[in-house]
Write a structure and sequence with these properties.
Radius of gyration: 30 Å
Largest sheet: none
Number of helices: 4
Strand content: under 5%
Number of strands: 0
Structural class: mainly alpha
Length: 105
């Protein structure tokens, strides 16, 4: 589930990046290249569509991020404690090495 949500976050982020790059901060962008009179979608409607798409993708990104925080696997801390306790028991149960004889000089 977490991986699926992460992939959805990446897809939405990529789409949002494309939509924002298509827009121009001064109202041009993709719209200014196709501003002929016989267009079905006019300049204003294309700008409205890009703005609605940007807001929709932003809301989806926030929702997916919130859902991903709930979907994070919770077993990580317990596994770390188990490994830590296993290592401690192995250290405590090891047979101490024989003391080394002092090196005579």
């Amino acid at each position: 589930m977490y991986v699926t949500i992460s992939v959805l976050i990446l897809i939405v982020s990529f789409l949002m990046m494309l939509v924002v790059l298509v827009q121009n901060s001064k109202g041009g962008g993709l719209v200014s290249n196709f501003s002929s009179q016989n267009q079905i979608l006019g300049v204003r409607k294309t700008t409205d569509f890009l703005e609605k798409t940007t807001w929709t993708l932003a809301v989806l990104l926030v929702v997916f991020c919130l859902v991903s925080s709930v979907a994070i696997p919770k077993g990580g801390a317990q596994k770390a404690n188990q490994v830590d306790s296993q290592m401690r028991s192995q250290i405590e149960n090891t047979i101490p090495a024989a003391p080394e004889a002092p090196i005579a000089e």
